[in-house]
Amino acid sequence: MSMNLKSVAATLAFVLITPAAAAAQSWTDWGEAEARLLIEAENGVVTEVAREEEGSLRVYGTMDGWLNLMLVGSDCTGAGLKQRCKGLGINGLFEVDDPARAAALEREFDYQYVADVADDGDLILHRQVELGGGAPLANIRAQLNGFIVTSELASSRIWPTKSGDANPAKSRQPPP
Predict the structure, then answer these.
(1) What is the pLDDT of residues 76-98, one digit of tens each?
(2) Domain over 29-158 is classified CATH 2.40.50
(3) Of 48, 123, 142, 143, which is most buried, counting CB atoms within 10 Å of its CB?
(4) What number of other Cβ atoms are within 10 A of residue 39's Cβ?
(5) What dihedral do alpha carbons 46, 21, 147, 165 form, nearest 10°?
(6) Is 0.90 topped by the overall pTM?
(7) Phi and psi dihedrals of 19, rounded to 5?
(8) Contact (Cβ atoms closer than 8 angstroms) between residue 63 and residue 145
(9) What element of type H or E holds 72?
């Protein structure tokens, strides 16, 4: 086979295979295996997996060695490792330990990537990821990265340094 024919064959194979590979990287639902893949791909470690009685899935992870978050599955079917969820939420819990301060932080935070709510002495950040119709893995990773960046900003506002200045971002850059 000539070099030109080999090149055409390789290009054709790439074009035919790429849509199938891309489809495999699009999520319409997720389970524990995908949660592990996502957390590990973003420099995290899965610390716990919980399946709630009402059928939801919760996968806990530590990102970049400091941020504890939870992937929350909703609209789930199946059981055990075969459980699949159509809803994907990302939660981060910040223990402020002062209900009044948590409520004040909730009022002043205005972050693009997340919703926030004060719950007694805690501040909870939440990002809901839409999977309807399929969400590319690259988009889901970008949303998780945006959540981590926002969590870094929240952390620096909740626990400023002793000099009064906010802590710089720990590891991430804002998404483009």
Answers:
(1) 999 999 999 999 999 998 988 88
(2) no
(3) 123
(4) 21
(5) 90
(6) no
(7) -60, -40
(8) no
(9) strand 67-77
